[in-house]
Amino acid sequence: MSIEVNGVNYEVDENGYLVNLEDWNEDVAVKLAEGEEIDMGEAHWDLVRFLRNYYEEYQIAPAVKVLTKAIASEKGLDKKEASEFLYGLFPKGPALQACKIAGLPKPTGCV
Amino acid sequence: MVGATDASSQEVHHCGGCNADGNGKFLHPTPMLDELESGPWPSFISGFKGLAERTKKPMLRGVMDQLEYSYNTKMGYWKGGLVTVDGYGAGIITRYSMIKDKIPEAAEFHTMRIQPAPGLHYNTAMLRELCDIWEKYGSGIITLHGQTGDIMLQGIEQDSVQECFDELNRKGWDLGGAGAGMRTAVSCIGPGRCENACYDNLKLHLKALKHFVGVLHRPEWNYKLKFKFSGCPNDCTNAIMRSDLAVIGTWRDAIQVDRDEVNAWVEKKGIDGLVNQVINLCPTKAISLKDGEMQIETRDCVRCMHCLNAMPKALSPGKERGISLLMGGKNTLKVGVNMGSLVIPFMKMESDEDIEAFIEQIEEIIDWWEDAGLDHERIGETIERVGLKQFLDGVGIEADINMVSRPRDNPYFKAPY
User: Fold this and answer.
1) Where are the alpha helices (DSSP H) in B218-311?
2) For residue B248, what are the β-bridge partners?
3) Which residues of chain A neighbour B84 with C-beta distances below 8 Å?
4) Do B220 and A92 lie within an 8 Å CB cutoff?
5) For position B416, what pLDDT does the model report?
6) Which stretches of B150-244 are assigned E, i.e. beta strand?
7) B80 has a chain A CB within 8 A of its CB
8) Which residues pair with B287 in a beta bridge?
9) pLDDT digits over B19-59, tens only?
10) What is the rounded average pLDDT of the residues B158-172?
11) Does residue A11 lie in a domain region?
12) Can you tell me the ipTM of this complex?
């Protein structure tokens, strides 16, 4: 399977995740977000960049608690509010939607 | 996908495309599965067949075909994935078929975990609604209850999940836990229907559920964490083996003895009965005969419940009741199977303040575990790795002589899984 952005075809797996990490760019992200019915705002981009930076450094997607902690400390929220904020941005969850839009591989395990 | 490759090289039975079969029946022949109906016990296959013939749902036929195929090849063909409903990160267990090209009718067969009411008390109206909604959107197959404690609605396609959930939710049902967060809690029937309950475990279950509902739906911890609430040390929820946080009712004064009922019991069963069935079976030899009367030495009693179970009217739990918290029960993971260890020997659980204090303590324990625990590590394993002392220091609980690593023996020991 593949998606087309600006006349270029990008390979995706059966669940719509990018196959090649280096294929990612912001236009591809917008296209992937459309598929998830998400309108990318500044807060969405912040999170997607955080995920990509984290992945570049550790070669693994961060655990959700790392994500919520980062949001909590940056926005001055408590953990519960940070979790609600996160699901406000990505209603079907960070694993399912944020990782996909950030072009990271599909998280494993029963997330 | 190794399995799928192997499967295609195997000799295929009747079901190639799932359309070829005569004799006017909805289901395809399943000779292997039929064998399961021949034994002395009721078979789930009979249930499947009845449901499939009544509802004519293709996915039921597909699942039977896939299971028949599995029995022939001795392989399983389900794989996981990610399906959720809006605002939730957990609660749907995905099952995609690895051989959907062979058996397209079983391509998707996801499970929805639905939270039970505390104590598993339902009324028939709610159950009817649940069944009707489930048969409308899903396969109609229900497990009451799965090992997680949830009502398992088994067999739905991704496209129907959101709508099905919305309708269930409007009727008061909610998804259960999954993933690395708080899981669906379980409680025994408690004071609702049992005289041994030492605290209102149904109320505590509900309060804890409401408090932790956020992290139940949006998991974000190291790994799963399970509550079970047993009303007394009979532990009918198997909390000590199957939960990280086993909340078990107990008492700290003497067993209450009704002399008249003791005498009535002895009159019926004889003094031999008292000696052979009760006194000799007390694991800590806390009971003796004195001048022909039964005497219980409270300081020797470990609340194993044997004498209370043997003489239900004559003996009952003490008056000063509360809970014990045992932590770390779980099945094999990084280390082998563990039973819970006693962490809080006694805590009152009567007023709302008691409940608040309890939940605050649990919050503190979870905070500690979030920082100290490794990814995919149950809390009992974290405690075992860093040591009980480190844990107690971390959560501000004083060490106590009653914290023993093996609070009881045989009655709770079950066959290995």
Assistant:
1) 239-242, 259-273, 306-310
2) B230, B324
3) 92-93, 96
4) no
5) 46
6) 151-156, 186-187, 227-230
7) yes
8) B296
9) 444 445 899 999 999 999 998 999 999 999 999 999 999 99
10) 97
11) yes
12) 0.73
Q: What Å distances lie between residue A76 and A48, A54, B2, B46, CA to CA?
A: 19, 21, 48, 57
- Domains of chain B (ranges plus CATH)? 2-77 (no CATH), 79-170 (3.30.70.2500), 186-251+322-412 (3.30.413.10), 256-316 (3.30.70.20)
| Number of domains comprising chain A | 1
Tokens standing for residue B139: 């396969």
Say if A109 falls within a structural domain: no
In angstroms, the CA B81 to CA A110 distance is 8
For B341, half-sphere exposure in the C-beta direction (CA atoms, 13 angstrom radius) is 21
Q: Which of B234, B262, B233, B264 has its CA nearest to residue B250?
A: B233
List the domain range (segments joined by +) for residue A66: 2-101
CATH number at residue A66: 1.10.10.370
Cα torsion through B285, B289, B290, B292, rounded to 10: 170
Chain B residues with CB under 8 Å of A95 CB are 82, 89
Evaluate whether residue A107 is within a structural domain. no
Dump pLDDT digits (tens) for B368-410.
999 999 988 999 999 999 998 899 999 999 888 777 655 444 4
Question: How would you classify residue B314: left for phi > 0, otherwise alpha for psi between -120 and 50, otherwise beta?
Answer: alpha
